[in-house]
Specification:
570 residues; four-stranded mixed sheet; Nucleotidyltransferase, domain 5; four-stranded antiparallel sheet
């Protein structure tokens, strides 16, 4: 090979002959002198030059280097990675006075970043990760949903394939035409990698679809050749809106399914589900072009049939068994059966119910009609009858025991049993037993208060805190001397009486109330004489005339005159 011959000639060259060898091979290979020297060094050539004393020394300090690296990092694309050139980052640093212009070349800056493993190539390297394992079938289930981009249902025409030349990232208007989407839900048992798939034709991901999918996956009787069923101990999923909805997360919690948090944007965590999605696309959906479905019902029927075949025959590379065979290794204590549908619907619709603790330390709970159960909670610390409120949680794997939450602590409580005659089994038998309830905090505090007020030996009609002075010395606590205040006497004259007015309607009401008849002629004369209002003094004069004579005539009307006022005043 020419490289070995080239190195041998370089080593044998003397007194400037190395340059002739370099020139010769430059002409032969078209490479630069630097490239040829690098090739020679990799193949055993040593030029014999002394190393520079400052080799490896950096022209920039740590802060300056970090500033340039930070620009490249924060401007990275989520998928594509770093996109800012080192030269641009260096120019920005120089423009902002971080680095002196000309202090370092672009190539040297690239070398510095590479030496410190903060260059673009290093930033693109996936983060270190660990392998995860599950303990047994149904220990961990992973589920994921994806829009089925290859196919969609088009009215009565059935399943249609999305042509890649019509549906791609720059053709958003074509995606918009597809009002309803075909969404593929996939669940994987992490231990056996058993795959379950179901399709929904809908406008988007919803918690109702997810709820239906989970019940379908965890229930039995899907197919005679699909024994897979049961509730997992852990569930992993991405943070989609439907997945993290309160209804779904509470539903999983009530089934005692733990949902560990994960780092954001961590696709490896759902790796098994991603692999399953790809398997469904390749091994199931690839045949739909030759046998298209005309409804989502047909599609799901074929999907179940495919699940029975794929899981029952295809061996997994990890455990070297068909997936169904591996799942059948599950033990009795590992298989938690899905509760009856009535309980499941209750869990989904009513996450928990609040109860007031009765005076006998009991609460009642009923999740279905006419099945009321009583529970004694006197053993729970801090419970006060007729005051404490607790939350009752239905725990289907422990029913009829329920979870009772008090002060953010959950207790598993058994129902009260009943003896013959419908009496509570824990009730005291008359004439044979005596049982008392534990004292509450309030009762204990009341005892302390009584002892403090009356002493240990309380006598009949005893006075609390006898001898203590409560009254008779309160005024002594006031230290201020007050200056006497002067005021004005109240006037008892009729000042202002003459000036007051009332409405004519009020006068008419008072005349009628006094038994004085009002003829149409009198009514008209009053309104013509006084208008809408009349002085209070004049109204009193008319009332007095009427009271004396028993009647009132137009001739008695004197008007709002000063003479009339003076007559009344005198």
């Amino acid at each position: 090979m020419w490289k070995h011959v080239f190195v041998e000639q370089l080593i044998a060259a003397r007194n400037g002959g190395k340059q002739k060898v370099i020139d010769k091979y430059r002409a032969m290979t078209g490479k630069t002198a630097q490239s040829l020297y690098r090739i020679a060094a990799k193949n055993g050539f040593n030029a014999g030059r002394k190393k520079r004393l400052d080799k490896g020394a950096c022209e920039l300090n740590d802060m300056q280097i970090s500033f340039i690296a930070a620009q490249i990092q924060v401007t990275s694309r989520e998928l594509k990675g770093p996109i800012m050139p080192v030269e641009k980052a260096l120019i920005i640093a120089e423009d902002n006075g971080i680095v002196e212009p000309g202090a370092v070349s672009v190539s040297r800056m690239q070398s510095i970043l590479a030496e410190r493993q903060i260059n673009k190539a290093a930033m693109k390297t996936p983060r270190p990760h660990i392998k995860m394992r599950s303990l047994h079938p149904n220990h961990v289930h992973i589920y994921d949903m994806s829009v089925c981009i290859q196919y969609y249902l088009k009215g009565k025409k059935g399943l249609r394939m999305m042509r890649e030349d019509m549906f791609y990232k720059n053709k958003f208007e074509n995606f918009a035409k597809v009002k309803r989407k075909l969404i593929r839900y996939v669940l994987v048992d992490h231990f056996s990698h058993f795959i379950y798939v179901k399709y929904y034709y809908t406008g988007g991901e919803t918690q109702e679809n997810l709820y239906d999918f989970l019940l379908s996956a965890w229930s039995g009787d899907k197919h005679p050749k699909i024994p897979f069923r049961g509730v997992p101990f852990y569930a992993l999923f991405d943070k989609g809106a439907a997945n993290v909805s309160k209804a779904i997360t509470t539903f999983l919690n009530r089934l005692d399914i733990k949902t560990p948090d994960s780092l954001p944007h961590n696709p490896r965590r759902q790796g098994s589900a991603e692999v399953a999605q790809n398997l469904v696309e390749c091994w199931f959906e690839s045949g739909l072009r030759m046998q298209p479905a005309h409804s989502v019902e047909d599609l799901n029927a074929w999907a179940i049939d495919w699940c029975a075949w794929f899981n029952g025959t295809r061996k997994h590379s990890r455990h070297k068994m068909p997936r169904t065979e591996c799942w059948l290794g599950i033990k009795k204590e590992q298989l938690r059966e899905l509760p009856e549908r009535q309980i499941l619907h209750y869990l989904y619709e009513k996450p928990g119910e609040n109860r007031l603790v009765r005076g006998d330390y009991t609460i009642s709970f009923c999740y279905k009609n006419h099945d009321v159960r009583e529970y004694n909670v006197k053993h729970i610390e801090g419970i006060q009858p007729n005051r404490s409120r607790v939350q009752v949680l239905l725990r289907p794997h422990n029913w009829p025991e329920v979870g009772v939450v008090h002060d953010q602590i959950e207790y598993l409580v058994k129902p009260i049993g009943y003896a013959e005659g419908g009496f509570r089994a824990d009730a005291a038998i008359i004439g044979e037993e005596f049982k008392s309830m534990p004292e509450t905090k309030t009762q204990k505090a009341a005892k302390i208060s009584d002892n403090l007020a009356y002493g240990e030996d309380r006598k009949k009609d005893a006075v609390p805190f006898e001898g203590m002075q409560v009254y008779g010395n309160q005024a002594d606590k006031v230290t201020l001397e007050y200056m006497p205040k002067t005021g004005v006497e109240i006037s008892t004259s009729q000042s202002g009486f003459e000036d007051r007015e009332i409405s004519v309607m009020e006068l008419l009401q008072k005349l009628l109330a006094s038994g004085i008849g009002i003829t149409p002629e009198l009514n008209k004369a009053i309104k013509d004489t006084y208008g809408k209002t009349i002085l209070l003094a004049e109204s009193k004069r008319l009332l007095d005339i009427g009271a004396g004579t028993g009647k009132l005539i137009p001739a008695n009307l004197g008007g709002n005159s000063d003479a009339a006022l003076k007559t009344v005043a005198s």
